[in-house]
Write the C-alpha cells for this entry.
Amino acid sequence: MLSVVIIAKNEAHNLPRCLESVKGLADEVVVVDSGSTDGTLDVCAQHGATVHQRPFTTYADQKNWAADQASHPYVLSLDADESLSDDLLQELMAWKTRAGSADELPFEAWSLPRLTSYLGTWVRHGGWYPDRKIRLWRQGTGDWQPAHEGGMLHEAWVPRVPGRVGQLKGDLHHRSYHHFSDHFRQLAKFSTLGAADARLQGRTSHALKPWLRMVFQWFKQAVVQSGWRDGATGLRIARWSAVSAHWKWRQVRAARAWDSRQTVGIVRTDALGDNVLSLPMAGALKAHHPEVKVVWICKPYAADVARACGHVDEVRTWDGACHDVVEGLDAVVFAFPEPALVRAAAKVGVPVRVATGRRWVTAMHATRRVWRSRKTTPVHETLQGLHLLHGLDVPAGLRFPEASDWCGLLAMAPPLDASAAQAATGLSDDPWSRTVVLHPGNHGSANGWSVDRFQDLGRRLTEAGWVVAVTGTESERGALASWLGEPEVVDLVGKLDMPGLLGVLAHANLCVASSTGPLHLASAFGTPVVGLYQAQAPFWPARWAPFGPGVVLETRQEAPKGGLGISVQDVSEAALGLLA
C-alpha cells in the first residue's frame, strides 16, 4: 500500500528518529544511499529498510530514482532529518485506512506542513512555517523537478494535475540544525549550489549586489515575514540567511575570475606544526575549485610534509634569500605573512594577494585583506586559515567550521610504507601492533612536559607491553641520554630524516607530545595522540590543538621542577585508554 522512500548520505545520527516515526505506517522503507561511511547502512539494517546504492547526481534526479524503487502504489518521501509528528502519524494512519477501502480518493497527492527545529526551538515565522511540501502521492501522478533545467537546488514534487492535491494538517518535523555549525555548513552548501544555479540561468552580479541582497534578505525574514516574533532565534536565522544570500551573489560575481584562475599559492614559512594545521586550506580550495593548481610555499624542512598532502599539486621551498617562489601565481594566500614574500608578490605583480589586514606589511601590499582578530576569542589556527580563503571568495570557514571537518581536507599519505618505517626503528620483528612514540622535545615553542615525567610514562607503557620509541633531534640527545640508554627504549633521536619520521608517526599506535610538529603530524595521519598543553595563551589548545583522534590534557599549573604540571598518572590513563 505505502512505501516510504529516503535519500541519504552519512545520516546515521538522523535516520533512527526518521525510521522510528514511520514504524507501523510504512509497508516498506526504501533508502537510497550515496556512499555513507558513518554507519548509515547499519542503521538501515537494524530497522529493516531496503537499501540501494547510487552515486549522488542532483536532488531531483536522486529522489525520482528512489521513488522508482518503491513497490507499492503510494509513496511517502522523507528526508533523513525529518520525522512524523504524532498528529501527522495518526492522520496518515486514518488516510491509509481510507485509501485501502475507497475505490478512488479525491486527491492524487498531498502536501504536509513542515515545522523546523533550530537549536531546539520550533520556528513558526520568518518564512519557515508552514513551509508546505508535497511528500505523499500515488505512483505515476507526478515527479520531482528542479526549479530550472539542470539546477541543483530547490527541487519540488510537481503533480501532473495541479488541482488534485490535498492538504494534511499534521506537522512534518524537520530537525536540520542541532548546532550553529550545522547552519554554517548548510548556508555554505546552499549558497555555493545556488550560485551555480544562478550562473546556469545566465544571471550576473556586480560589486554591490551581494550587499544589497544581504540587506534585503534580512529585512524580508526579520520584518516582513515576522521573524522577530521567534525572538533571538528568529533574528539569528534572518542574520545567517542574509549571509547565505551575500555568499551566493558574491560567488556568482567571482565565478568569471575563477574561470581564468589556474594557480593559487599558499605561503606557510614557519614551523612544521603550523604547516600541518594550515594544510586543510589546500583541501578546501580543491573542494570548491577541483581544477585549480595548489602550490604550497614553505621552508625546506617542511617540504616532505606538504608533499604528503594529497591536495597539494606543487611544493616550492623558500630559503629566505631567493624570492622567485611567488612568480607565476594567479593568486597567493599568506597563511603566514612572511614580509619578504609579501613584498615580492607585490613586486612581481601577483594579481590577487590575500592576507590578514592586521600587519603593516600586508596592509600595504595585500590586495584583499581579511580582518579577523584572536585577541578576545582564541580561534583555531586551521579555522583562521580557512577564513583567509574568504579573500578568494571561497566560503571555506563556513563550509568547514569544526575539527570534525578538517581531517577530510588533508588526504595525508606517508612517504614510507610500513616496512620502510619499521626498518627505521631498527627492530627485527613487526613492531607496529604495539609501538608508541614519545616526543619529549619542543624547541621552546610550547611549555613542555619534563623529561623525567616522559621517562616515567615510558616505563609504565613498557610494563603494559608496549614498545616505546623516542624521537627528537640530535641536539636534544644530551638531555635524554640517561633515558635513551635503557634497554627497552627504541632510540630514534637524531636518526630519522623527515620521510622516516613521517613513516614512523603514521604507523605507530600512539604519539605523546606537547604542541609540536610531531604531535600534529601524527594526528594528521590518523594516529591517536595525547597532547600536553598549557591552558592559557599563547599555547592554549583552543588555538593549537590537534584535530585528529586523541585526547588533549591541559593545565595552568607548573611542575615543581618546571614544565607542565600534568601528572604522569593522568597521561598514562589517557594513553592506555586510547591504546585499548
